[in-house]
Predict the 3D structure of the following.
Amino acid sequence: MTPLFPDYTRARALLKYLEGKPKATYNSMMKAIWELIGTPQNPVDWTDPDMWIEERLTGEDKQFAMEMWRHSGGAVNPRHVRGSNFLLSKHKLISDAIGIMQLTTDGKDFIANDEGSAVSAMDEQEGIHKILRLFYAKTSAKTADVLDDWQAYLIARTNYKKKGAIYTLLIDRISNLLDRGYLSKQGHTYTITDLGIAYLKLHESEDELEQDRSNEAMEAEVRKQVSGLQAHQRKQLREALSVMNPYHFEHLVRELLEAMGYSDVEVTKMSNDGGVDVIGEIEVGITHVKEVVQVKRKATNVSVSVVNQLRGVVPLHNAMRGTIITTSDFTKSAINSVNDARGVPITLIDGDKLIDLMIDFEVGTIQRSFDYFVVDDEYFNNREAVI
């Protein structure tokens, strides 16, 4: 998998320019630009190549960069060619055996044919066909809807394991497909276009594609049923909290804090607690923080007076911050009040967030799951190709 996978439009523009150019001159320009990148504390603006090439580069490096920028009609910013470099190298589209960069046979085919043999081979290796199949099966989807399938595909075939890197690879390839007109985008939703379907059908059988859609329809029904069950369980959990003994609710919050990693958590006495119901300590980085919590099992929204009351008693417990946890919600003035940087930090946890935490940390809830398998078409296709 090529990292920083580029749009083919920019890769072609770079490839056309590099043909016949000295490799050493190109490397010199790239090194000069790299040395000017800057740091997060002192960022460098690269948005206007006409400006920064003239101001920051000199001699042959400046000439080479400016020619690249202008020769490509503004398609190739010399600062952002690493992804295209990776692509040209990985797929052997250019050769520099004699120090002068020359197009290979595949390089020439890549430039001449948008859907030629070179592009088809690259798309197969880069997972483009797989992504198109995912969007064909769903017709329209957000990145989150295809990420799990894409992750499983990569884990089975590559060394990529971390979700962040896998997500970046997906976004880069979706951008490539948008540039080629194979996907369209509206808001955060992507849809395979007629052009994308036509291209996909050049490389995949009708039976396989329709099987994808059939499998997706069944999986969608399962997801719908699970979603309905989760909504029903959340409603039941909310009802159970609403009738819970207030003191028992305080102990539930204690259990939740312990599950979240707090230590020395204790519930205060039922009277004379000064508005504090639970006290605990937590490690924040290298700092040990004492925190006080007030819980409100009530139907009405918590007002700003409750926030002010807790803020006033936090120092009395030698604590650094406070939290209010309620089964309901907070008034607008209460929410606004916690943004005052001059006061003691107060965190607000409403009923929805409380339920999320109880589910995540399995306090008063039990996680259940079921497994199923799907046939790995690529595995069987690759086996047939080898035999």
Summary: Strands lie at 94-95, 102-103, 140-141, 183-186, 189-192, 263-267, 278-284, 287-296, 321-326, 346-349.
